[in-house]
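Practice record 12: protein with adenosine-5'-tetraphosphate.
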Amino acid sequence: MKVLSGIQPSGKLHIGNYFGMMQEMISRMESSELYVFIVDLHALTSVHDRDRLATGTLEAAADFLALGLDPDKCIFWVQSDVPEVCELTWVLSTLAPMGLIERCHSYKDKVAKGIMPSHGLFSYPVLMAADILLYQADRVPVGKDQKQHLEVARDLAQKFNNEFGETFTVPEPAISETTAIVPGLDGQKMSKSYGNTIPIFMEGKELKKRVMAIETDATPVEDPKDPANCNLFKLMKLFATPARMEEIHGLYVNGGAAYGYLKLELLELINDKFADARKKKAEFLADPAELRAILAKGGQKAREKAVVTLDLVRDRVGLKY
Ligand code: AQP
C-alpha cells in the first residue's frame, strides 16, 4: 500500500503536526511504501521570505529525521525538486470546477487570519491533489483540517478517470480520531500561521512560557470542571498515560484540578517525550550538506515515480502528439 503525506515548512513544526501526521507516518515505515515530503511550494502561499523558506525546509527535514524517519525506508524529498507536480497541477486545474475549490474553508480561514488572498492560496487544494495523484497514493494520513482537501483530490481523480480513462488511484484519507485536531494555546486548531503553537523542538524558558500560556477558564481549583471543553486536558491526553489521565479526569469532574500544576506536569511530559529527538536534531543541523544529500537522493527517487504518471497523463489528455 502506498502511503503519502506532506508538511509545509512554513514555520516551526508543532505538536499538532506531530500527532496529526508525523507520528503516524513514522510508524508506517516498515509496513507501507511510504512517501514523505516537505511541501515548499505550498509554503510559498504564506511565506515570502527567501531565508525563512530555505531554512524552514532544511529544518523540517531535520525534524522528521530526528523524530525517527529513516530515509532508506521511505521516499523523503522536497516538493519543488519534482517539477512534474506543477504540470499536473495545471492539467488538474483545467478540470477543477470553481464551485468545488470555492467551498474549501481553509482558504477563507487563512484569509481571515491575514494571509494574502492570492491565486496560489486559492488553488492550494489543486496542488495538493497533484501531489497525491502523481504518486498514485492509496492512503493519506492527515489531520482533520485536511479532510476537505483530500475530498478535492478524490473528486479530481474520479473526474479525470471518467473523462480520460482509468489513470489515477482514488486516495483514501487516514484520520486518527484521537489526534484529528490538536488544539492550540487558545483552543483553536494549533496552526503555524495562528501563532498558537507548542513547537516540538522548543526548549527551556521559551517552552515553559508557551505551556503556561495555555488558556484555561477561571473555575476555582476545588470546583468541578468539564474536561471535554478544556484544551489543557486535551493536550495532556496526548502525553500522559491512560492511568494518569483517569486520575486527572477524576480531578476535573470531582474538583481538585489545579491548572498551574497540570501545566507543569505537561511541560515535563513534553520535555521527556522529545528529549532524544532534540539531541538528534542538533546533529542533523550541524551537517546541512548531509541533509541536502539525503533530500537530493529522495528527490531523484520521487521523480522517477512522478515521470511515469505524468507521461501517462500527457498521453491521456493529448499533450503527446
Ligand atoms: N492542530 C492540528 N491537529 C492535527 N493535525 C494537524 N496538522 C496540522 N495542524 C494540526 C496536520 O499536520 C500535517 C501537516 O500540516 P501542514 O503544515 O502541511 O499544513 P497545515 O494543516 O495548514 O498546518 P499548520 O500548522 O496549520 O500550517 P500553516 O499555519 O502554515 O497553514 C497535515 O496533515 C495537517 O492535517
